[in-house]
Amino acid sequence: MELLPRSPGEFGSARYWDRFFRQRGQRPFEWYGAFPELCPVLHKYIRPRDKVLVVGCGNSELSEQMYDTGMCEDIVNIDISDAVIRQMQERSGNKRPKMSYLMMDMFQMDFPDAEFQVVLDKGTLDAILTDDEEATLVKVDKMFAEISRVLQVGGRYLCVSLAQAHVLKKAVEYFSQEGWVVRVHQVASSGDKQQFVLPIFIYVMTKFRKIPSSAPQILEICPEEQQKPMRVENTEQLVAAVRDRQHYALLCSQLSRTPCGEQVPLDLCDRESGRPRYTLHVVDSPSVKPSRNNHFAIFIIPQGRETEWLFGMEEGRKQLAISAGFRRLVTVALHREQHYEDMAGIQAELSAKVMELAPPGLPARQQVPFLSMGGDIGVRAVRHRGSSPLSGDYVVEDVRGDGSCHFRRLIFLHSRNVVQSEARLLPSLPLQGQKKRRKDKKKANPAEPPAAIDKSYLCCEHHKAMVAGLCLLGGPDPLPGDEAMLVVGLGGGSLPLFIHDYFSQAHVAVVEIDPAMLEVAAGWFGFSQGDRLQVHVSDGLDYVAKLAAEAPAQYDAIMFDVDSKDLTVGMSCPPPAFVEKSFLQKVKIILKPEGVFVLNLVCRDAQLKESVLATLREVFPLLYARRITGEVNEILFCQPSPEARRDAAELGARAQALEGALRQPGRPWDSSYVLADMLQAIQIL
Fold this sequence. Notes:
This is eEF1A lysine and N-terminal methyltransferase. This protein is of the alpha/beta class.
C-alpha cells in the first residue's frame, strides 16, 4: 500500500492527502513526536485560556490529547484534505465541543488578523519545505506571512520539526528578521523505539512588534538536558548547535545497534561557556570474551596524562580496553580549561550521558564501573598562559605523572594533546634552620607540584635517541673536546641544556624563530645562556643559508627539532621547507665531513615520508633511522661520508663508551637512560 508520496512535491497536494487518509483509515498517523514527549515543552507556551490554531492537523491525536488533558480547549484545526477533516469531525463529535475542524488552505486562511495566541505546526513546515527551489520558498514565505497575520502580538508559533538545516535556517531567518524572538527546544526522548533516529525539535517563534533592523536578534537553544536557554549570536551558530545534537543522536543510535569498527571521538561541552569539558573515545574490543559483567566501562584519564601513548593514541587505547577486559570502553579525557572537584563529581556529571553510548546487549540495570589509574583524577596546574604571532596560544602546566613524579610541560593549544617540551621537576627539600611558619600563613598544598627543574633528566624519548646518536661522531675518542653543535628549535630548552651540561667542552648554538619561546624556556624551564650556549632568534632556514654562504664545515653535529605551524600538511616536524633538497645541501655544507645531522621526523603521511627519506638519501650517502616506540617520531641520523658506516656491534660499543664518558662522579644521571639501548633498534636505510 502506497502511503508516502512519489516525490516531495506531492506533500502540498490536497489530492495526495485525501488518498493518503482514505487508505490509512481511522488509524492516527503521527509523523513524529508522541504527546508525552512534546507535552513538557508545549505546556510552557500554551495556556488554558489561549485560542490555538493547528495547521495541517491530519489525523494526529495531538489536538485531542491537548484537549483531554486540560492543556487547552479552544482549538481550531485546519487541513487541505476534506477526507481527513470529515474523519476528525466524526471522531471528536460531541466529545470535544469547544474544538473544531475546518477544511482550509493555510496559505490563504479565512481568519481575521490577530485571531490566535498560538499557532501549532507538527511536521507541516517539514512537509512543505522539501527543497530550496524558488517556487517552494515563495510558498513558505506565504505560509509564514499568514501565520504572522493571524497571530496576536505576544503570540507564539510552535513548530515541531526534525530541523533539517535548510528548514531551520529558513524559519529562523524569516522570523528573526521580523523582530521575533526565536528559541529552539530539543525534545527529550521517551526512550521507546522511535520511527526516526534523529531527535525532534520545537521552534518557538514569539511575535513582537516590528523593531529596527539594527536591533540585535534574540536566538536561543534549549537542549533536552537543561531548562535554561543558551543564547547564540547568529543563525549559523543555531543551525550548527542543532546539527551537533543530530550527529550525536545518530552516533548513539549506531553504537546501540552494532560495535564500532573504528574508535569514535566525541566532545562533551560545558553548558555555560560552550567549550569542550570532556573528550570521549568509544573503543570496542570484539576479541574480549563476553561475560555478564564485562560489557561496558568508563575510564577516566587522570589530568595531564591524556598525552601518553596509552591514552592519547589509538593503538594505546585499544591495548587499554583489552587490558581492562571490557568489550566496550569509553575513555574520558579532562580539559585543562575546566575545573573538576573529584571522581565522584565527574561520575555524577557523566553517568546519564555515557549510558547513551552503551553497547548492544547490555543487561538491564547493569552496574557500569568508572575506572581510573590510582583511583583519582590526577593533578594539573596551569602555571602560565601566553600567545605569540608565530606559535599561537600556549600554556605551561605542571602535572603529576605515574607515581609521585611531577612534570612541567609546554603545550601549543592548536595541538592540545601534543607535548612540545617537558621537564621533570625536582622534589622540594625543607630548608635547614628555617623559621617556623607564622600561623596566619597559608599552609602548603600537598598536591602542589615542586618548581625546580631536573636538568639531568630527558623526558622525551626522541631527545634521548638524538643524544645517543652523537656516538656516531668520528674519531677514537667517544667524547672529543670542543665540539661545535647546532640545535634548530628551542622549545623549553631541555635538549640543548642537556648537551651543554654533559658535553662539558661543547659549544652549542640554538636557533629559535619565536622570541616568546626563549622567554618561556628562561622563565619556566630553567634555561640560561652562557659562553658555551647561545640562542639566536632567527628563522632556521635563513640562519643555515647564511652560514653555508659564509663559513662551511663548522659543525660536528646539527640537530633539527622544530615543529611545523602548518597543520594542513601530514608532517608536523619539521616544516616541509627544512627537508627540501636545496636546503639539505646547505646543511651538508656547514656540517664537518665526519659529523652527523640528526633530524626528528614526525610524519603520518606514508607517501610524504617516503619522499622525505628519498631526498635525504640523495644528499647524505649514509642514513640511519631509529623509530620511537609508541610514537610517530622517527629519528634520522645522516652522515656525509659512506665510509663512516658502522655495524650494530660497533654502534653499541661506541654508545657504551660515550655513556661512560658522560656519567662522571658527582654528576646526576638517570639510571634508566642507557645509550646503547636507544640504538638497539637502529636501522641503516
